[in-house]
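HUMAN: Mind making up another protein with tokenized structure?

ASSISTANT:
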Amino acid sequence: MTSERAYHHGDLRRAVLTAALDVIRTEGPDALSLRDLARRAGVSHAAPAHHFKDRTGLLTAIAAEGYALFAAELAEAPDLRERGVRYVRFAAEHPAHFHVMFRPELHRADDPELLAAKDRASAELRAGVTGLPATGRGDDDRLAGVAAWSLAHGFATLLLSGNLDGAVGTRDPEAVFRSVAELLFVPESS
């Protein structure tokens, strides 16, 4: 492509990320090709490499963006249960990010932007656990965090894969998650 459009795209990085998220949402991350994304963005086949270097760089950028969005979503929740609800909401609203974030073989684990975003998200998850009364988490904050994460991540993953269609039906998945969390994490009476 020799036209100026190929080299003077308004926001090529964002256009490629958006196209990649669309492909991941509909076809999965294995269907990604920088050449195809360049075609979709209307730029030369080499243009995306200027921003992402390669496919792994693109997936790393998607994971970093996902963790940043995820951390912001979790930060708005007042307690552990609502962090779980936000976890489920994030997965439902950002399925492509969610799929890439939790597949470490797809991205560069040592990327500074990714590491910083993951640290922020982890801190927000831990903040929910440390806010529990001692009787609600036992003696081990780390295991309580794993239990909470397993519940929210498992629910979100099952929801995205369609495995909860029968159980959730037409009900709001967030409300269903709240009910599930209440079943398993009932505060002890004093």
Remarks:
- The CA atoms of residues 81 and 181 lie 7 Å apart.
- The longest helix spans residues 55-75.
